[in-house]
Structure formats: structure tokens, C-alpha cells
Amino acid sequence: MLEVRKREALDKAYKIAKFLKEKYNVSKVVLYGSLAREFDFWEFSDIDIFIDGWDDDRFNYWTMFLEIENIARPYKVSIVTQRDTTEALLKEIEKEGREIG
Q1: Is the pLDDT of residue 43 over 70?
Q2: Which residue ranges does the record assign to the Polymerase beta nucleotidyltransferase domain (predicted)?
């Protein structure tokens, strides 16, 4: 059952990446966190996504986030931009993340 849930979450992540590239012209979408790691995904894992190359307009961010939440359902999603992140998280994303779009 967990393997099915992980496959579904990965499918949602790729759909989100495609959506972000097509609608918001982001240059890079990186999956990180438990879904990106081979053995850490569990029942309550969310979809962690880092986006780069996007015009970071706060109003559009919330519009975009609501659209992404709809795609991700029933999974929770976390979206981080270059502006939102810390050096420590950026290093983690560079180390374990995988580009999906």
C-alpha cells in the first residue's frame, strides 16, 4: 500500500513540475525530502518542491500555490523558492534533490 501511495505522490510531483514549467515558466523544478529519498517515504509524507527561475511575485505565489494544491490532492505540498529558503536547506536540496522539470 505504501508503495502505491509513493507512486501516486511521484506522479503528482511530475504533474506539478509540468504545470509550473508550462504556466509559470519556471526554469527548474526539484523534488526533495522524503519523496525524493529512496527509503524515507511514509504514510504522512508530503511533496516537497523547490522552484528556481520564477518571477517571485507574492500575489502570484498564492494563486500558483492554490493551483498546485489542487493538483497535489490528496497529498500536502510544500513549495520553496530561492527567495524563501535558507543556505542550509539549499545545501540539502542540492545534495538530495532530483530535478523533475
Answers
A1: yes
A2: 15-100
